[in-house]
Amino acid sequence: MFSAALLALAVLASPQPGAPKPATNTHCPVMGGKVNPAKGPRVVVRGQEYILCCPGCDKKLAENPDKYLETDGTPKNAKAKK
Q1: Contact 50, 24 (CB under 8 A)
Q2: Which run of H or E residues covers position 48?
Q3: What is the pLDDT of residues 47-81, one digit of tens each?
Q4: Which in 26, 30, 66, 79 has the greatest CB count within 10 A?
Q5: φ, ψ for residue 55 (rounded to 5)?
Q6: DSSP per-residue string spanning 8-34
Q7: Which among 77, 27, 74, 78 has a CA at the least distance from the CA of 53?
Q8: Stretch (H or E) spanning 49
Q9: Exposure string for 52-76, b = 16+ CB within 10 A, e = fewer
Q10: pTM (2 decimals)?
Q11: Which tens digit of pLDDT belongs to each residue from 2-53?
C-alpha cells in the first residue's frame, strides 16, 4: 500500500511526455536584449521554451530557429560562461 502511494506520487511529479523544457534564457535569442521572465512573451521551439524581449520575436524564432539557436538549443547570442 505504501509503495503504491509512492508510485502514484512519482508519476504525478514526473514531467508530462511532450511537455516543453522550461525557459532558462536571460536574453532574447532574437534581439539579444534582457528578458522579463514575469512579462516577456514566450515561445516553444523544438521542445524548449524561450522567453523573448518583445512581441514579434516569437514569430521570428519559430519561423527560423536555425538562425538563432545552436543545435543543442542554446541561443547563438548567449554569452559563454567562464
Answers
A1: no
A2: strand 48-51
A3: 999 999 999 999 999 999 999 999 999 999 987 54
A4: 30
A5: -60, 145
A6: HHHHHHSPPTTPPBPP--SB-TTT--B
A7: 27
A8: strand 48-51
A9: bbeeebbebbeeebeebbeeebebe
A10: 0.73
A11: 556 555 555 555 455 679 999 999 999 999 999 999 999 999 999 999 999 9
One-letter amino acid identity for 9? L
Q: Which residues of 19-40 are buried (b: 16+ CB within 10 A; e: fewer)?
A: ebeebebebbbbbeeebeeeeb
Cell of 1: 500500500
Q: Are residues 31 and 53 in contact, defined by beta-carbon separation less than 8 angstroms?
A: yes
Distance in angstroms (rounded) separating the CA atoms of residues 61 and 43 = 8
